[in-house]
């Protein structure tokens, strides 16, 4: 079964009682039992729910595994994985270029409990090998990373990690299972911010954690029920609807991202473009090898001041200034003051996260409109700069 067919058919038969093509939302907290301790497979919706069960089945099928737990947010899914596998004294390796929420939960929640965090260039295999030791429990990968879209060699890192007894966790949010299959490359656990491309319409908050091995998944599943960070049935239904068009949307996102990256690369007000589809991207060849496409995100460094960055991101016609990504409407973000503001300024500078970095999530609009919107922003900066130079200086 091909990907788009899986997204529409896997785990989603017509509702058996009425034949409804789209299954109803099981908006219930509890279930009648036949006798004490004898239910029909559902006892309480924190533990399980038919709508959530359908979503978990679909996501597992798309990632090519048998185990998925849906959570109330991407960070709730991350927390379950971290809590399941880290104990005081354990070490975790993470990328230097990492989502601000992941940085925050590790440094402000898990670090005080004695977890050792090694933040390295995970796109450098020698650095990964050098950081691994007997206490390394998890190697946490984002590929592409957030926000600079760096590429990690998942298969090579998995080989190194497994040789030292560590598990590999891949945040597959940016690539999605349509463009990248981490389990086929050696990943042990995959996490998603389902909020983004999987749901796809900027109307729900949700996460997921998946595993190939039942023994690896069991403590994550336990924590899903024990800590209760589960999504509502309605949110699961929204994602079930959204995921049906995942392939179509990802194709358009990538087309738009490619057009934007090519336009930005030629512009004099752009210092650097981050998009793995560009031949000069340092991870381009690895991305070609381990991905079926280059994703829908683009980041770039504006050649300008902080004030110009603020003006640029705040005045676009089609790119809404907002956190998050992966929806059908284009979004623009300034990581230093938005998604990665939880990373202290000194740490951002050390990690190479420039204050002039701008992150784009092209939606499903027409590519020409999106490119023109960005070019208009550059022209406005030039016009403003020229006007400022013409203002006479008063003498006293």
Folded structure, characterized:
α2 (50-63) packs parallel to α9 (233-243) and α3 (74-85) packs across α8 (214-227). α7 (176-179) links the parallel β5 (167-171) and β6 (189-193). The strands form two sheets. The protein has a seven-stranded mixed beta sheet, with helices on both faces. A five-stranded mixed beta sheet has the order 8-9-12-11-10, with helices on one face. The chain has 14 helices and twelve strands. The chain has 396 residues and is of the alpha/beta class.
Quick description:
With 396 residues, this protein is an alpha/beta fold.
- What portion of residues is helical? 25-40%
Strand order of the largest sheet: 1-7-6-5-4-2-3
Number of helices: 14
Report low-confidence residues grouped into runs of 5 or more: 390-396
- Strand percent estimate: 5-15%
Task: Considering the chains and any ligands shown, give keywords for the structure.
14 helices; alpha/beta; five-stranded mixed beta sheet; 396 residues
